[in-house]
Amino acid sequence: MMSKTAKRIMVCLCACAVVISCLSGSASASGTSEIPQNTPVQAAVDEALPQELETLCAQSYILTEMQTGTVLFEKNADKKVLSGHLNKLMTLLLLAESIDSGKTAASDLFTATDRANAQGDPQIWLDKGEKISVDELIKAITVGNANDAAVTIAENICGSESRFVEKMNGRAKALGMDNTIYKDSTGSDKGNVTTARDLSKLCAELSKHEFLTPYMKTWLVNVRGGKAELVNSNRLVRSYQGITGMKAFSSKDSGSCGCVTANKSKMRLCAVVLGCADNDMRDADVKKLLKCGSESFQLYSPQVPRELLKNIPVTGGESLECELEVQGEPLVIIKRGTASQLKARTNTTELLQAPVSKGQVCAEYILEYDKKCVCTVNIVSKQEIRKMNWVCGMKKLLYNLIKL
Q1: What global pTM score does this model have?
Q2: What is the CATH number of the domain that holds 229?
């Protein structure tokens, strides 16, 4: 350990060097860490398809872990299909975001228009000019698939359904739903298309609005004072342990389709199955996907060694050292039972050159399994460190000369 006097002498020497550099008009080139910047936590899932999943009837499917965004299993996940009533998941997301932002409340009353009244089945038979609470409208499109409720939501949030559809497509683009096109809020138009992968992204975003879970888990409910009884088309809410939502429907054009989220083995799983032959096969496919996912994988939180979080020296900066922290809360999906077999290696920086930006990657903690990268955890700078100028250098020089 360096003595206080030695540290002050070092500061003086650094300050002198900076002052001389500034006075001579030659600024030193700003260096950066050799660690690549903004490297995300990465997960590599390389799992052979379980034999049980080879018998699935779905034309396309995907199973993801929503906390990490990891795809566990997939088949034809980018195949475009008619989205049908699954459009209402985006309608619900925009409504949920309006509620969370404070623009809308569950107790607000929305007014049904003649356009909402003219929608085809399924519906809750809203009359033109009828006022209905947002709470009941949420029930109408989560428990049921009511078209008139969806249009009422769209028109009251954006003034017209066409403007609402523009917002739906904009939100889809922001979520990376690159193969999704919305034509209406209900899914009635055959121009509405999506994919299993896109729907998994939508479900992951929708699941963040936890106040919706009780609605989605409801099996049977009445709205409009008992005038309309709704039965959830996602039949698994009655029987599957750990389920948290989302939606199911069937039609002649799309087959039987479902998006189902569930908490299993500390993972938050999302199964999307599209184009099944019937509802029984759809539900069986979902259960097989969730079972295989929870039995094959586990959620793992890498523990970064304390020595990787030690301060790093900084040259040419207003501070001599940079404090470090782990970026975010790293979580990764690994093959179940392989945690003890993970091998760690590090990529570190011995010295930083100012300026240093807050969040700059200064080291990496890398875990591998079977010589393949499982995840990369970033260790980043905790604060910004500006480059020392001649004024700061003079102040440090004088301060430390006085203290010597």
Answers
A1: 0.83
A2: 3.40.710.10
